[in-house]
């Protein structure tokens, strides 16, 4: 699974490369690899509340391996070592203000 866009901004990172997303409510478009019977990946948009200093491990879950349809699951989360929650929230607020101006 790969991230296609975050809040409308296209992401070009490789599927296995993590990306950093600032805290807050985000609209994220994911693309899951095609099921065993499909040719193309399926893109879906999800609203995700990103918490500061949290690393997310996300996955696509299918009812059957050959299904094209999938749902997003949070496989696990973990705290980012050495991350300061207040600093991350402040950076997110500054970024939000610069986008609004």
Explain how this protein is built.
The protein has 101 residues and is α+β, with helices and mostly antiparallel strands. It is 16% helix and 42% strand. It is built from 1 helix and 6 strands; from the N terminus they run ββββββα. It has one helix at 85-100, and strands at 2-6, 9-10, 24-32, 42-50, 54-61, 71-79. The chain has a 4-stranded antiparallel β-sheet, with no helix packed on it. A two-stranded antiparallel sheet has the order 5-6. The mean pLDDT is 88.
Short structural summary:
With about 100 residues, the chain is α+β, with helices and mostly antiparallel strands. Helices cover about 15% and strands about 40% of the residues.
General shape: elongated
**Mean of pLDDT:** 88
* Assembly context of the chains: single chain
Total count of strands: 6
Strands of the widest sheet, in order across it, are: 2-1-3-4
Q: Strand content of the residues, in percent? A: 35-45%
Q: Major β-sheet, in short?
A: 4 strands, antiparallel
Q: How many angstroms separate the termini?
A: 33 Å
**Low-confidence sequence ranges:** none
The structural class is alpha+beta
Number of helices: 1
- Residues in helix, %: 10-25%
Rg result? 15 Å
Reading the helices and strands in chain order gives EEEEEEH
Describe the structure using short key phrases.
101 residues, alpha+beta, four-stranded antiparallel β-sheet, two-stranded antiparallel ribbon, 1 helix, 6 strands, elongated
């Amino acid at each position: 699974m790969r991230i296609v866009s975050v809040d409308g901004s296209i992401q070009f990172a490789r599927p296995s490369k993590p990306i950093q997303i600032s805290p807050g409510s985000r609209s994220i478009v994911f693309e899951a690899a095609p099921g065993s019977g499909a040719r193309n990946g399926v893109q879906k948009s999800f609203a995700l509340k990103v918490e500061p200093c949290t690393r997310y491990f996300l996955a696509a879950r299918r009812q059957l391996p050959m299904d094209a349809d999938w749902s997003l699951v949070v496989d696990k989360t973990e705290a980012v070592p050495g991350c300061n929650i207040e600093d991350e929230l402040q950076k997110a607020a500054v970024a939000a203000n610069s986008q609004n101006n």
